[in-house]
């Protein structure tokens, strides 16, 4: 059997992405096979899920399972791989290089078409959103002006009424003065009723005008309140766009696994490398230069130096945690400050219930909804690390920086707080299912 396999052309056992013998090969619906890790990385870097070989686009993400027959054959071929003459190897390598470059040209062209569609879609979306906002702002401004003009007219009517009252009282006071002055003759022809009518007006019974005032600046806060209402509308629109954005970046989901050799001794990492929790005693672990020795942190074994990556972490009802990305070269020994200047781009929930971005100084984050699952999106090229509430899609915070080092996902489950924070952090999204 081994002799028969060794007679087969090597191309049947090579992954076209890494150009090496298959490792955990998977076969996708079009019939082409690739190493599981190679295909996962390839799809993580591209916006659309398509076959790297024939370019067939899949409407949904195919379920990937290891092709056990091909895996066994590849392992046996690896053990019985025949030696090739140097000249033959050189010819094959050159031909492969040509084919790879031709395929790369096609991929560039295909990606450019996808990119153009994305640009057009974004322009249309922006036109729609901003036009709606401009219309809403114009409508709100007209409403403010109309309200101000109505209030002005109302005040003018009020002042007119007050002036008429004052003029009436002035007239009555003058008549009272005339009646009470003995130097001024009284008309004897006036009837007793008329006399009685005049004498009933007395200064002590008149209105106390000292308490009647006119506000000279009646519109304080009118524009601000209208703008605040407008901001609420903008916030609703931002949340809608954030939810749409979060759905679009899910296609960059990568498989993230915890690195036990970086975990602080107080941390317990599950066997499947997807969960980490704080314990009440030190674990017996070997000393490792990559291990945190003062703060209960742990890194993922994966690191990224290009492209876009997304993963989700279930935080549940925990009362303290810290998540994000860090430079691979960060200090892991002794005391250090968690901030971008030191290679940390993270957000935290503090034990008092406050969410913060770990800037210097820290930036408080006002969240309307307590997230049970946090999405982390790294755009290495653009220099952005964004956080989302995975359930609602609401954007939490974005760091903007320039990255020069490899970045690792970062996790800290927080202290126990008397057992109230014993639940683990769980990496809940995995790109491939085997």
Globally, the shape reads elongated
Span from first to last CA? 28 Å
Query: Portion of residues in helices?
Result: 25-40%
Q: Low-confidence parts, pLDDT < 50 over ≥5 residues? A: 194-199, 430-434
How many H/I helices? 6
SSE series? HEEHHHHHEEEEEEEEEEEEE
Task: Give me the count of strands.
Answer: 15
The proportion of strand residues reads 15-25%
Structural class: alpha+beta
- Tell me the radius of gyration: 38 Å
What's the rounded overall pLDDT mean?
A: 85
Widest beta sheet: strand line-up: 3-4-15-6-11-12-13
The biggest beta sheet, please?
7 strands, antiparallel
Report on the architecture of this protein.
By secondary structure, the chain is an alpha+beta fold. Helix content is 36%, strand content 16%. It has six helices and 15 strands. The chain has a seven-stranded antiparallel sheet, covered by helices on one side. Strand 12 and strand 13 form a beta hairpin. Helix 4 runs antiparallel to helix 6. The radius of gyration is 38 Å and the shape is elongated. The C terminus is likely disordered.
Brief digest:
It is built from 6 helices and 15 strands. The protein has 434 residues and is of the alpha+beta class.
